[in-house]
Structure prediction request, 179 residues.
Amino acid sequence: MEAVVTGKRMEVLLDEPTIQQRVQALGQEITADYQDKELVLITVLKGSVVFAADLVRSIELPLTMEFMGLSSYGDDTKSTGVVRVTLDLSKPIEGKHVLIVEDIVDTGLTMQYLLRNMATRNPASVGVCTLLHKPARQKVDVPLDYVGFTIDDHFVVGYGLDYQQRYRNLRMIGHMVDG
Ligand code: 5GP
Prediction:
């Protein structure tokens, strides 16, 4: 499938069945790893919402969901690592097993900030589940416990990920190419 988007073409990188199959598998892994633990899933707004909605339904454990709003002071396509909290957790996570759900780890700066922020709240453990990882652009080393897909250096949209706040509702993940 190809679509014309504001003067650019969009090429499909991951289609819907591929994404759904992988998300199911991640949910099964998490279910096996967190048996008998009190799990709190922390979803990073806004890009991770679609992924988290599918992921929670494939985790067969009692869990709670929290949301964290972060805004990075970058331009549309690059993160600077300077992060502002726009929405904080509604409950303390002290003593809880926390799993951060992120859409994409690019430079890793946002995740580094988030991990440091979580550590100050004394959780029992902090894990990271990211749908996408772009190792080519990574600037800082962050532990990634669950990775959906490792991708090349493309700016991707769809399945929660936006370009200027649009395309989050696409069922697939694509990238824009000049055309
Ligand atoms: P990092 O701090 O790891 O560089 O970037 C993390 C954030 O940058 C992601 O949560 C996402 O909001 C944004 N980002 C990084 N790469 C992409 C991309 O390819 N597409 C979109 N839509 N956002 C991206």
